[in-house]
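note to self — DONT lose this again. spent like an hour looking for the file last time. sequence + predicted structure for the chain T wanted, 235 res
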Amino acid sequence: MVLAMQASGLSASVLCRPTRLSARFLGNALAAPSNGSRVFAKKEGNWLPGSDTPGYLDELPASYGFDPLGLAAPADLRDRFQESELIHSRWAMAGVAGVLAVELLGQGNWITAQEWAREGKSPTFLGIPLPFNFGTILAINSILIAGAETRRTFAKDEERKYPGGAFDPLGWSKGNVEELKVKELKNGRLAMLAFLGFVAQYGATGKGPIENLGQHLANPWANNFATNGVSIPGL
């Protein structure tokens, strides 16, 4: 090969040198999109395989390009939706943890565990009576929530959603914050669906999730959504 190149008078430098003809075939660089263009970026793991992520969702954690109606296109609404989702996610995670814990600890289910308030009795914690009545607990909760919401109202930008400080006693925000944001949203969305399931489940069976799970595992064919007499009318 080398001898043939030398015999023909060609060299590697000549072969590798761009010519006008090659430049004509390679074409020119593409121009940048105009200001009126809508830019979409394809991302792996979008909610619809092969779909595009709108540019306004590209920087949001765990968006997965999901906004089929374009509701989050306005910047002010997008910020409000993001904050609302975070708040609902955190409440749902706390609620699901409480629903499961009260039943796992043998304190009834999440509905019967609060009957003391309706019946005018004193509250208990793991069976131990507490020296408070319903009014005192309501006042304490109101003061704590009012303080947190007041701080959130006057906070700016990211601090409204991720306050840190006293709300991060374990210092998790000092790690990979972007990864933690995604994990929080994933767990929060799952918790919101789970709590909706708990409510529907109790409405259909009158029992808590742990009790329902135990009955289903003991006899799956006799205890499922199709046999509770509510989920599927007529069965």
